[in-house]
Amino acid sequence: MPGQQGNGTLAMKILVPVKRVVDYNVKVRVKSDGTGIETAGVKMSMNPFDEIAIEEAVRLKEKGVATEIVAISMGVPQCAETIRTALAMGADRGILVETDVALQPLAVAKMLAAIARKEEPRLILMGKQAIDDDMNATGQMLAALLGWSQGTFASKITIEGDTATVVREVDGGLETVSIDLPAIVTTDLRLNEPRYASLPNIMKARKKPIENVKPADLGVDPAPRLIFLKVTEPPKRVAGVKVRTVAELVAKLKTEAKVI
Ligand code: AMP
Predict the structure, then answer these.
(1) How far is CA 154 from the centre of its chain?
(2) What is the pLDDT of residues 185-205, one digit of tens each?
(3) CB-hemisphere CA count at 13 Å for 109?
(4) Domains in the chain, start-ordered, CATH in brackets?
(5) Which residues line ligand 1 (CB under 6 A)?
(6) How far, in Å, from the CA of 41 to the mean position of ligand 1?
(7) Quick one: 169 exposed, middle or buried, by C-beta within 10 A (0-12, 13-18, 19+)?
(8) Which residues pair with 71 in a beta bridge?
């Protein structure tokens, strides 16, 4: 049986995909030819939702629920740095899928499915979305490709035996679902506050192994399927006006904004 340990208890391996994205503090600039955003010379970091996923996996390991955490990143060779950050936070080993192709969710999901079939994890914990292109698609596609249960936008995860209870952030409030493992769970902002890696752990992470594979090794053609027509800056916000009296405000709302 997948994940069975020698002592008869289930080994809980967790895969955590971590994407290298423009750091959330950086003001994103659109390339002058409108083909995308500027990444040259820009600070890159782990996608914040993936940091939350790593943190949750590490907490599950600290509680004795998880036995191994594998961080996976796909893209240019520098994605290895993102994996090192995950290793410094507490992941055990990494897999880098190296490619210069601009990856889209379906290609990422297919490659994650291939890795999942080989690694046989009981849980894949990943971000609900990458903050660069806000696709919010990879987790759902992966669940469909593997035929596994999914709990998306998680703000609380409890694992008991072969079941995960996931509290989901939905429009009207919180929804609690119970799903069978193996499963995909995607993280929302309120799940936890990720830790900073300590210096000793950063040093230790240097010795942890990172396996290097190519999309072809996983039997996947990562060529893009979506064509981006154009990327533009949002319209500049216009300055507000100060009104002196309530009557003036009401008049403006009636005649200019036409909202009352
Ligand atoms: P998205 O569907 O692109 O918004 O991304 C959702 C999640 O999929 C991210 O938070 C990551 O966990 C994972 N993911 C997407 N692209 C990559 C990538 N290139 N490498 C590793 N993980 C990725």
Answers:
(1) 12
(2) 999 999 999 999 999 999 999
(3) 21
(4) 13-255 (3.40.50.620)
(5) 17-19, 47, 49-50, 72-75, 103, 105, 108, 126-127, 129-130, 135-139
(6) 22
(7) middle
(8) 16, 94
State the pTM of this model: 0.90
Q: Which two tokens stand for residue 176?
A: 């609690």
Phi, psi of 22 (to 5 degrees): -60, 130
CA separation, residue 18 to residues 81, 138, 189, 245 (Å): 11, 12, 15, 53
Amino acid at 185: V
Probe ligand 1: pick from 19, 103, 110, max atoms within 8 Å of CB? 19
Determine how many CB atoms are found less than 10 A away from the CB of residue 36.
Answer: 14
Q: What is the CA radius of gyration of the chain?
A: 22
